[in-house]
Q: What sequence folds into this?
């Protein structure tokens, strides 16, 4: 893939700020929604609710840590991990108070990070050759593809929804009007990325989201003026909340509700049984996320044409991901992980400059403190972000399929491995053992590895010809 900016290159500061904003927009929706999901599932509200702004702050800190461990050689942003949602819910449901639940989130992230540290030390001792044999392109390619395809339903669902809802939380806008806004976002993004000049081609998502947001606002203004619910797409409640009590300093600048501050008062409630509950909920999931970590780094390696598992090395990327996840959870409660949206943004824009990721991490920390910006992001309707995600998730899927271009799918061995992963992954096969859920992606990857190992003794056509 032809990159406009390589990993080590440094665009001018104004351009870097613009590129960093695009990275933020690519990862922000998913990062902010995880704590909102936990609040809904567990029933947290008011002062005890998880803070999306704190999760964004934690993602920025986690990304800083990741960049340090990887010696600024891996252009990937870390954000809130969806894989740990069940684990986070278990930390709250097993707690006697919300404060203890927050303490459980911190302990859980420490347990998960410890898994990464142990694997990193193992890799440091024995190397990564075993991993390349265990997870060759025929295994990793389809796995990366289903990471994108598994999110397709989310993108299409968002494409049909606005942010104005009834008292029961149901969107009131017409799905057709929402799809129009989403398609404007998608088409403008595509046109900018394909036909835009150098700078425009590097920021297709900013232009695309801006265009979709503009159309959504125009339709909403018409809907409000004519009292047509079908056109009411954009909710302005986040802006109204800023000045509900008058214009104050907090209307422009506010400190997020950090997890560790709430957890300090819960140490006297801690028990060994609760620690065991958190341990069982988090550590097995960490092994699952390890597989996704490898897939993401193989994917970004193919994009930048440098093997990150060799330099800076899998041990460093694991340590960066693991320790970064601990740091992120300390502030925001959500364990972090490398984001496929970030990888796709690099691929589509052709900008692999790690300085962009550094600025994006700093931006995440800064933005989480700026109430108007958080309100602006919250006001972007789902349909607009859905249009952007069609491109982002599609690129993740295509990146995986591109890894198969050198794999001979005429060989039954390769065909069975790839088909097993694709069908079980897209089909959504997941397994639950008590409080531990093995996601569809992890199940597909494990089955693919098993099939590949089972057929490892089968000779390929090339090997037969040599004999």
A:
């Amino acid at each position: 893939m032809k990159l406009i900016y390589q990993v080590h290159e440094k665009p001018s500061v104004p351009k870097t700020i613009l590129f960093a904003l695009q990275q933020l927009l690519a990862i922000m929706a998913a990062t902010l929604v995880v704590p909102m999901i936990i609040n809904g599932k567990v029933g947290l509200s008011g002062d005890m609710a998880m803070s999306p702004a704190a999760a964004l702050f934690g993602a920025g800190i986690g990304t800083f840590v990741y960049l340090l461990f990887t010696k600024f050689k891996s252009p990937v942003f870390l954000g809130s991990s969806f894989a740990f949602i069940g684990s986070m819910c278990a930390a709250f449901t097993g707690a006697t108070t919300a404060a203890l639940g927050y303490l459980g989130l911190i302990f859980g992230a420490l347990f998960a990070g410890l898994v990464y540290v142990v694997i990193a030390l193992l890799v440091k001792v024995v190397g990564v050759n075993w991993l390349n044999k265990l997870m060759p392109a025929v295994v990793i390619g389809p796995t990366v593809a289903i990471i994108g395809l598994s999110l397709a339903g989310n993108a299409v669902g968002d494409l049909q929804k606005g942010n104005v809802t009834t008292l029961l939380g149901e969107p009131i806008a017409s799905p057709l009007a929402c799809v129009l806004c989403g398609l404007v976002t998608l088409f403008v993004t595509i046109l900018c990325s394909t036909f835009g000049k150098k700078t425009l081609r590097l920021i297709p998502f900013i232009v695309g989201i801006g265009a979709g947001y503009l159309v959504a606002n125009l339709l909403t203004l018409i809907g409000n003026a004519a009292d047509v619910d079908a056109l009411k797409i954009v909710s302005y409640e986040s802006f109204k909340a800023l000045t509900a009590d008058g214009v104050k300093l907090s209307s422009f600048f506010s400190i997020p509700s950090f997890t560790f501050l709430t957890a300090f008062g819960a140490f006297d409630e801690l028990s060994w049984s609760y620690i065991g509950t958190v341990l069982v909920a988090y550590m097995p999931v960490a092994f699952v996320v390890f597989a996704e970590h490898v897939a993401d780094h193989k994917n970004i390696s193919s994009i930048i044409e440098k093997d990150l598992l060799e330099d800076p090395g899998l041990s460093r990327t694991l340590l960066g991901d693991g320790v970064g996840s601990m740091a992120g959870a300390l502030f925001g409660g959500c364990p972090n992980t490398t984001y496929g949206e970030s990888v796709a943004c690099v691929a589509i824009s052709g900008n692999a400059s790690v300085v962009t990721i550094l600025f994006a991490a700093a931006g995440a920390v800064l933005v989480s403190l700026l109430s108007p910006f958080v309100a602006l992001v919250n006001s972007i309707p789902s349909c607009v972000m859905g249009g952007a995600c069609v491109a982002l998730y599609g690129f993740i899927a295509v990146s995986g399929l591109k890894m198969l271009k050198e794999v001979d799918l005429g060989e039954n061995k390769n065909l069975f491995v790839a088909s097993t992963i694709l069908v079980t992954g897209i089909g959504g096969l997941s397994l639950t053992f008590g409080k531990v859920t093995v996601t569809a992606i992890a199940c597909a990857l494990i089955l693919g590895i098993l099939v590949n190992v089972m057929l490892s003794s089968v000779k390929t056509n090339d090997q037969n010809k040599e004999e």
